[in-house]
Task: inverse folding
């Protein structure tokens, strides 16, 4: 079974076009949910219950007719759109990405929890003040060494505790995404991994009464995909987050590290199509706007990811997959294609 978990699949076919967009509500302050085609409802009901898929965030006006029942201002969607988003049967999770840029409060997390149904779960990113080795300027350039890098107590106080208190049982995954490291850290992997393990063990101690919360580490440096990294994750009860991004190798080159942690959950963030390169977010945004169509199809990644999902959930493990518009052009459409591929390729495994 283990050897077959991550085998390749042929690309999934494109599903039929969705229904036309609903009525416009440009002046509304509480977005409504778009009608969901029956095909997607049936697909969602057939997916493995242990699978949760969703977007990297939710405030995109271009999802009109897919998620929203009409056009809304991005500020309205950011503030009140989660309730409509969470009504879509394929969207059972979402990544709270804004926590990476600034720590959120208990009340902010509680507000998100209050906008979502009981069976909804969140993926939350740790603030960069903990996971970035550099203090950066507004343009993203490193200014100086970050003295709080991988500070375990700061991680608990600014991230774990408020997320846990605010989201409660809806907290699904805590993601520690390490920003690209300085050469100094990359040449001292023993020191880096020791500090990372201390942080993860402190986090797991804080979560002692909440074993359902998954702790995952995502990296932006291929040099870290080594056995020593897997050993740290295993020792601390954490997992590797598949980061599908131009700075990282393709999915097939990351899967061996995930396989080495088996059995365990799957956490994947499909962030950026590799065609745009390691620094291609701006180009991807320009190419994909208004984010309502598949513009940069990536059937290879989708097929491998679908096979991984089917194998992991078929073996009784949970899977969280969040998808960005920058992956193929439209996260809701990518998720529908991914769901179809899971069902086509995973029936034998799940049975």
Result:
């Amino acid at each position: 079974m283990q050897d077959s978990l991550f085998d390749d699949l042929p690309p999934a076919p494109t599903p039929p076009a969705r229904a036309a967009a609903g009525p416009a509500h440009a002046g509304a302050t509480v977005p409504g949910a778009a009608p969901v085609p029956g095909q997607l409802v049936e697909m969602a009901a057939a997916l493995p219950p242990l699978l949760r898929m969703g977007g990297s965030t939710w405030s995109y006006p271009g999802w009109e007719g897919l998620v929203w029942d009409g056009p809304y201002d991005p500020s309205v969607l950011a503030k009140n759109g989660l309730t409509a988003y969470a009504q879509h049967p394929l969207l059972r999770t979402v990544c709270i990405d804004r926590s990476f840029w600034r720590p959120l409060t208990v009340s902010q997390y509680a507000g998100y929890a209050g906008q979502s149904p009981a069976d909804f779960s969140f993926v939350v990113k740790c603030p960069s003040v903990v996971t970035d080795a550099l203090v950066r300027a507004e343009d993203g350039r490193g200014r100086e060494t970050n003295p709080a890098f991988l500070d375990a107590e700061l991680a608990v106080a600014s991230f774990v505790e408020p997320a846990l208190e605010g989201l409660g049982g809806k907290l699904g995954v805590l993601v520690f995404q390490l920003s690209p490291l300085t050469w100094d850290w990359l040449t001292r992997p023993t020191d880096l991994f020791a500090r990372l393990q201390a942080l993860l063990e402190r986090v797991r101690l804080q979560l002692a009464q909440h074993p359902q919360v998954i702790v995952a580490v995502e990296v932006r440096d291929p040099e870290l995909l080594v056995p020593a990294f897997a050993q740290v994750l295993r020792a601390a009860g954490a997992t590797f987050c598949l980061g599908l991004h131009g700075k990282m190798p393709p999915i097939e080159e990351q899967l061996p590290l995930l396989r080495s942690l088996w059995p365990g959950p799957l956490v994947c963030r499909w962030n950026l199509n590799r065609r745009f390169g390691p620094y291609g977010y701006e180009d991807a945004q320009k190419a994909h706007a208004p984010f309502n169509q598949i513009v940069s199809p990536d059937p290879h990644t989708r097929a491998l990811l679908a096979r991984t999902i089917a194998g992991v959930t078929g073996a009784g493990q949970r899977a969280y997959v969040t998808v960005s518009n920058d992956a193929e052009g439209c996260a809701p459409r990518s998720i529908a294609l991914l769901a179809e591929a899971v069902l086509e390729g995973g029936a034998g495994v799940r049975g």
Summary: Residues 92-237 form one domain. The chain has 14 helices and ten strands. Residues 234 and 261 are 7 Å apart (CA to CA). The two ends are 13 Å apart (CA to CA).
